[in-house]
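**Protein record**
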Amino acid sequence: MNHASGKRAAPRLLAVVVGTLALATGAFLLLFGVLGAWRMIQVGDRDGATLVLTAGFLVVGLVTTLLGLRYVGVLHATALGSPRARRTFAFLASLVTPGVGQMYAGHLNRALLVWLGFAALVLLMLTGALGVAFLPMVALVLALWVLRLWSAADAARLVAPTRSRRAWFERWYVAVAAILLFQGVSWFASPYIQRVNPYRMASVSMEPTILDGDRIVARLHRSTDGPPEYGDIVLYALPDADGGPFVMRVVGLPGDRIEIADHELVRNGLAEPEEWAIRESKMAQHLVDQHDVIVDTVVPSGHIFVLGDNRSQSYDSRHLGPIALDHVVGTATFVYWSSDRSRIGESLVP
């Protein structure tokens, strides 16, 4: 009896040692992956090689950690054996990535339909195919959450109480791999298909049109897009400036002669009424003289002339000169959140 127990103890000890080493290695790789992902988010680095390396650290680290838990006995082979545990896992899997729970429950065709529906809604939202306006975007966000919650509840309902044999795609690790794959592909592909993006206004330069702290949605600019139009509110980034993107209104296009004196705008010899502009600010009256810049210039090709609506509180083309179209990030479309609740949903399209 003791001899047999000793023979069983040796492999068990080896499994614990191997599991501990796997846990340490997995944790190390996961840490590298998380730090790499955080750095990519912070600096906006989406280089393909860096992305593949970071994703590799995360995936290998996760798999190694799970194997380590399995070997040391924390995660048993039957950890998801009970119907309740499997229903909970299916619910959470589809809550994170709709369709994965259905796959785990053994309904692959249903999973594919849910995936296609979710992907279609995401594409409609990211591309702005239904229009970059408040109501269509709210409808899409609500539809995505309804589908996500329904998918989670449906996946939990579909889990069979007992099943002696399961297909390869009904394993928990296949579900985890599917979630990582779906999220990774979405993150990598979004810069190439995304046409809308939210931003937070971080200055008073566009008041009263956009208040400091307002959340706005912008249609992203692509190289194939034409130049913006008069009155459009654009977002642009400057290579040598910290922060941004900056938000200003277009008042001059390539070839326009722009004259500004005493805060009055004259374009191609005609005075512009600019009903949206305020010439003085009670917040900083002492800055009015500083910003009373005399301008007489012709906008060069490939550039635009921009001004802030709050003229005495705006650092714009009067000081920076015309802005290159290559620096334009997007065009503001609507306010989706504001400290003034009455402004939520307000259009920014002239």
Notes: DSSP finds eight helices and eleven strands in the chain.
